[in-house]
Design goal:
heterodimer; A: 252 residues; mainly alpha; 80% helix; B: 350 residues; alpha+beta; Rossmann fold; OB fold (Dihydrolipoamide Acetyltransferase, E2P); 2 domains; 6-stranded mixed beta sheet; 5-stranded antiparallel beta sheet; 9 helices; 26% helix
């Protein structure tokens, strides 16, 4: 019985969202310039953030999995912290690090005139910070379950470490990589707290879909619901993609 | 190419100490129980693991020398056949074999030609486009060998090459493997825990126990003169330690044996074949000079005979037929007389 309560608890809000969606006005709302702008910004920043996470996070996951660095356990814990941290705290932390008066940000601003907060780049930074751990822990699991002997075999066949990684390691962990990338991207797309704290809420510059939903809620509720519906569809799409194909391959 | 290995390697408090030479054109079996350090030895030779002291020289190339020299696997020209073959599951058989030449800088085309000729020489051309999960264990063994040979290595290392196969496949693959490694003119080293593999495939056997080499020799030397209990057990013979003097061996732990080697003096080992041991219910009166009493400790059925372990001084193992067992009515604890003719024993200096 408590199980059914939980089920209803999780499902009813989703049903409510579908029921309350203003379906007649839906095409008009989501094709409005503001909505399209937010959607475009969300897609661009989340994809760029995922790309950064892949470029840097995958090699890091490999380092953690192979326990090459000292204190691997501690490092792994540090990497996972952003996963557990309230996103707004991540935003504050980023401001303290990369803001104009931040630990690193002050130097960047004074010498190079670079500033991140309240820019689209800031959105990418906040999003990457929050989403990358999802990719790292998924990939680390993938690398760990890959037996070292394949990499060893490739090395004895004359392949350098770069070739081993690209030709042997990565193709063999492809299912984990795809799962990790999708999770990372989904998290990036939904990012709200760190973004609004670090990058602010400027339409066309830093106002991504979740921020647009939040803003619309105060002016026009039906717009907020319609935009929410779009994000729900994306989430369900991710779920289907993961369950339908990649998670199954990984389990077998 | 000759390999001179004189090193120790420590890993998780396990110490492997090796001092031996692997000659060119020789097939060496490294024989040892599980955990004796066999696989570690192969990993060290392949460059997959470092050493903690000493040096390893391949021909005239120093590949390891503490503290600073460690040539990576890529720079060693060593072909390795891994225990469960480690074929790359996402590549076809052909791509697996072409991977090595391609990694070493051959063009795609040349690599494929090389892979093709390997497939042909091993008689598995029809497997080229299959994935590793679409071939049998015996075929995978051949593909793994083809892949290792495709880089034209001067050293071929095989880790338990037959262990992953079922008994039936094993026989045919062993014959096949024997042909292939005989045709390879470099240095072949393979690791095994199966004495049959060592006897049938190797020119020379290195016995590894608990991280050290305990005996080296040709298979027939090992069979005739095992120097450790492990080797004696593998060869299925009784190994008796003692001190020899004028044809009499004072056995360590009690007992006396008459041995034919009258000139032998000092610490010695004696080999007594189980089938040369005769069992009697009553004290025998005959030409056998060695007669001693004990009791049956265990009876182990083999496929066509029975192994009888006897508690006595010295303890021995005898093999008898089922008929003899029925006649003697043996069971655990039965008091028994043991006899062995002096001439069936071979004693040698330790």
């Amino acid at each position: 019985m408590p199980g059914l309560v939980a089920l209803l608890f999780l499902v009813i809000p989703l049903i409510a969202l579908i029921v309350q969606t203003p379906w007649e006005a839906f095409p008009k709302i989501i094709s409005s310039p503001e909505a399209l702008e937010a959607l475009r910004l969300s897609l661009v920043t989340s994809l760029v953030a995922t790309a950064f996470a892949a470029l840097f996070g995958i090699p890091m996951a490999w380092l953690l999995a192979r326990e090459i660095l000292p204190f691997t356990g501690l490092l792994r814990a540090l990497v996972i912290v952003p996963l557990l941290l309230p996103p707004v705290v991540s935003g504050v932390a980023l401001l303290e690090a990369l803001g104009r008066r931040g630990l690193v940000g002050a130097f960047l601003y004074d010498t190079l005139g670079i500033t991140f907060p309240f820019t689209t780049v800031g959105v990418v930074i906040a999003t990457t910070f929050v989403a990358m751990p999802f990719l790292v822990i998924t990939m680390e699991g993938g690398f760990r379950s890959l037996h070292q002997r394949y990499e060893d075999a490739a090395a004895t066949l004359g392949a350098g470490s770069r070739r081993v990684f690209l030709r042997i390691t990565m193709p063999m962990v492809a299912p984990a990589a795809i799962a990790g990338l999708v999770l990372c991207w989904a998290r990036a797309l939904g990012e709200f707290g760190a973004t609004i704290t670090f990058a602010g809420n400027f339409p066309g510059v830093t106002q991504t879909m979740p921020l647009a939903v939040y803003t619309a809620l105060e002016s026009d509720r039906s717009v907020a619901i319609a935009l929410s519906m779009v994000l729900l569809v994306v989430s369900v799409g991710v779920l289907v993609a993961l369950r339908g194909k990649y998670l199954q391959t990984r389990a077998s | 190419m000759k390999i001179t290995a004189n090193f120790s390697a420590i890993r998780n408090s396990f110490r492997l100490s090796i001092d031996t030479i692997f000659s060119a054109g020789t097939v060496t079996a490294v024989l040892g129980p599980n955990g004796s350090g066999k696989s570690t030895l192969l990993r060290v030779l392949a460059g997959l693991q470092g050493i903690d002291s000493g040096a390893i020289v391949f021909g005239n190339q120093v590949v390891n020398k503490t503290p600073s020299v460690h040539v990576a696997p890529q720079g060693r020209s060593v072909g390795v056949v891994f225990q469960d073959y480690a074929l790359f599951p996402h590549l076809s058989v052909m791509e697996n074999i072409a991977f090595g030449p391609r990694s070493l800088g051959s063009s795609k085309k040349v690599s494929q030609v090389r892979a093709q000729s390997q497939l042909e020489s091993l008689g598995i051309t029809e497997l080229g486009h299959r994935k590793p999960n679409q071939i049998s264990g015996g075929q995978a063994q051949r593909v793994a060998l083809a892949r290792a040979l495709a880089i034209e290595p001067s050293v071929l290392l095989l880790d338990e090459p037959l262990a992953a196969l079922d008994a039936q496949t094993k026989e045919s693959v062993r014959t096949e493997l024997e042909k292939q490694i005989d045709g390879f003119d470099g240095c072949v080293i393979f690791v095994t825990h199966d004495p049959l593999d060592a006897m049938l495939l190797a020119d020379r056997v290195v016995v590894l126990e608990d991280g050290s080499i305990t005996q080296e020799g040709t298979p027939s030397e090992l069979a005739a003169r095992p120097e450790t209990d492990y080797v004696a057990t593998l060869m299925g013979v009784n190994l008796i330690r003692g001190v020899a003097n004028q044809g009499v061996l004072q056995v360590e732990g009690g007992g006396v044996l008459s041995v034919p080697q009258v000139d032998l003096r000092g610490e010695a080992l004696a080999v007594l074949r189980p089938e040369a041991v005769t069992l009697h219910l009553l004290r025998p009166e005959g030409s056998a000079r060695n007669v001693w009493q004990g009791s049956v400790r265990a009876l182990t059925p083999m496929h066509d005979r029975i192994r009888v372990s006897i508690d006595a001084s010295p303890p021995v193992i005898a093999t008898i037929t089922h008929l003899a067992l029925a006649d003697l009515q043996l069971s655990v604890g039965t008091p028994i007389w043991v006899s062995a003719k002096t001439l069936t024993i071979e004693a040698f200096a330790k």
